[in-house]
Amino acid sequence: MHVNEQLLQWFNEHEGQFVSGQQLSQHLGISRTAVWKRIKKLEKQGYQFESAPKLGYRLIRKLLPLQVDWLKLQLQGNPFAREIHWLDRVDSTQTRAHQAYIAGATEGTVILAEQQHAGRGRFGREWHSPAGTGIYMSLILCPRIPLAQATHMTLLISVSLCRAIRKLTGANVTIKWPNDLLIKGYKISGILVDTIAEADQVKTMIAGIGISVNMDLEDFPEPLRAKATSLKIATGHNLSREQLIISFFKQFEELYAIYLTKGFAPIRHLWEALTSTLQSHVVVTTPQGQVAGLAEGITENGALRVRDQQGQVHTLYSGDLAWSP
Amino acid sequence: MHVNEQLLQWFNEHEGQFVSGQQLSQHLGISRTAVWKRIKKLEKQGYQFESAPKLGYRLIRKLLPLQVDWLKLQLQGNPFAREIHWLDRVDSTQTRAHQAYIAGATEGTVILAEQQHAGRGRFGREWHSPAGTGIYMSLILCPRIPLAQATHMTLLISVSLCRAIRKLTGANVTIKWPNDLLIKGYKISGILVDTIAEADQVKTMIAGIGISVNMDLEDFPEPLRAKATSLKIATGHNLSREQLIISFFKQFEELYAIYLTKGFAPIRHLWEALTSTLQSHVVVTTPQGQVAGLAEGITENGALRVRDQQGQVHTLYSGDLAWSP
Question: Which residues of B touch A149 (CB under 8 A)?
């Protein structure tokens, strides 16, 4: 057993009690400084300890793993969650889903992890993924859509997730173009859809979804705190991660059916109703340079239309968006 | 050595001479019927034999492999042909390029084969690829373009190839939407671009190009002959495959630079000038059903606009096109 697990087991066996550094040091056969370092490390993973001089440490918050069996039961029949793979700690669910796809996994395969140590957002940016408090999930999808419409998927997922969160929490979650969800201007979720296409048809999409659910502010590393939030911080109470996952899949199944039968127009209307990006002044940094102006709308491909001061309209397919000061 | 190679070596050693079935049978240690079967098989691969009663067989057309060293020399400095891998017989260059990509190959990697035994077109359709007479080639490209514009690449390659062939042969080659080149209504080339995208940016494209160059009509299996052609059949003489490859890469480098600096508009104009699809009555079979009408133009995504009898305009992202009778 790994030292961290031995440490946690010891705390579990002494639930609610203080355990001295001395005891732990003897039990684990490591120095008291090493014990202290381990505790700090566990705290970074989302555990919380109370420490008191002379008394030692007491575990005050234990993280429950996702109740995967219950998830599977509730999602029975949902074509996008046919096969749920739960993992404890991974590099990134997106990497694992890519590997699963190469090994033959098909639509409906879901990779869920408690914790990621190399979670990533767009452009390979790090996505902070502490244990047990967030949702880190990747879906394998095989939509029969043309390559030219592949960009619809990020918007479809954003709308589904935004509706699921609003329904469960009542929080005023909004969509920020192109792929984030915000509460009061802070990011609570990022969506990243990778695409594999054969000729002019999409073959497979791998959709990564990260959601900050039950983190306290202290769960984020210092440099991230100023910009971080979670559903718990925003609403003041814990939210069942399982409920949120179930709710997302229900929304997604429903909206996807609408998309297949009625096209992108109804999804676009929902997106426009849920976004905080439109009718505001923005600066978008694209690979080709910066564009500043009024965000007027999105095209039928999900590109952002920005009208600059000279009245020229720019169609932006990709970029980082900030609001003008 | 494989029996076929022993057979070919024997013919090479007896260049211009007739070799009797009896001699071959003794030399190879197989029956005369087996010799005859081998000869038939080689004929299917593009070799030509003259056979005469009592005299036996004489090899009258030998296929020269691609002069890869010369190709490499001529393409020095071309960023899309930095590393040329020549293979004799493969399943499909496209499959090999995908494997090379997964193993770490980057932009400028080219896979060339003399012969494919599982060449494929769109929707996994077979692409007849006899030895030594065609060009079977896959390119690894890493264009920094948004996913929403991935469809441009097929058109960019079509235009490059069409111009290269016209320049070398003077033949009236035209582009058929979405991905074929035709001479007098017959297909001489197919283009198949696979896409791998991360979030809203294209990461890698693998472009497969098949060209029927020096086939005679007899090189095609009976069922394909009615619809088959080659540059040789169309123009009446052999064409250097190397020259054609070099010319394609030069065109592609030039047009790609224009695309990156000036966008899709100039490429679209070139495409429209070279296509035989526009201003004609077509029937397009799409995954969603058939659309018949006048092909009016292409959109800025390369989708075909077809106006039906009721005046409604359909935007088609994918499909099989046939001309109305």
Answer: 317
Q: Which residues of chain A have pLDDT under 70?
A: 1-2, 44-46, 61-62, 122-125, 127
B150/A196 CB distance under 8 A: no
pLDDT at A45: 63
The pLDDT of residue B137: 97
Residues A43, A49: contact at Cβ < 8 Å? yes
pLDDT in tens, B102-158: 999 999 999 999 888 887 776 666 767 777 789 999 999 999 899 989 999 999 999
Q: Which of B122, B149, B200 sits opposite A178 (nearest CB)?
A: B200
pTM beyond cutoff 0.90: no
Among A314, A308, A311, A312, CA closest to A286: A314
- pLDDT > 60? residue B1: no
- What is the number of H-type helices and E-type strands within chain A? 10, 14
Whether the bond between A178 and the residue before it is cis, its omega within 30 degrees of 0, is: yes
Residue B158 corresponds to which tokens in the numbers above?
A: 């079509």
The DSSP-derived string for A244-280 is HHHHHHHHHHHHHHHHHHH-SHHHHHHHHHHBSSTTS
Q: What is the pLDDT of residues B50-66, one digit of tens each?
A: 888 888 898 876 677 88
CA dist A68 to A29, A35, A85, A88, B84, Å? 35, 32, 9, 12, 49
Q: What share of chain A is helix, strand, coil (3-state, %, to 5)?
A: 35, 30, 35
Runs of H (alpha helix) within B14-148:
21-28, 32-44, 68-74, 93-102
Contact A195 B192 (CB under 8 A): no
Which residues lie across from A85 on neighbouring strands? A111
DSSP state of B203: E
Based on its alpha-carbon atoms, the radius of gyration of chain B, rounded to whole angstroms, reads: 22
Statement: residue B218 has pLDDT above 80: no
Angle at A149 between CA A146 and CA A151, to 5 degrees: 135
pLDDT at res. A242: 94
Nearest to B148 among A102, A151, A201 (CB): A151
The C-alpha atoms of residue A262 and residue A156 are separated, in whole angstroms, by 13
- Residue in B258, B59, B109, B275 with CA at minimum distance from that of residue B177: B275
Looking up tokens 């039968």, which residue turns up? Answer: A261
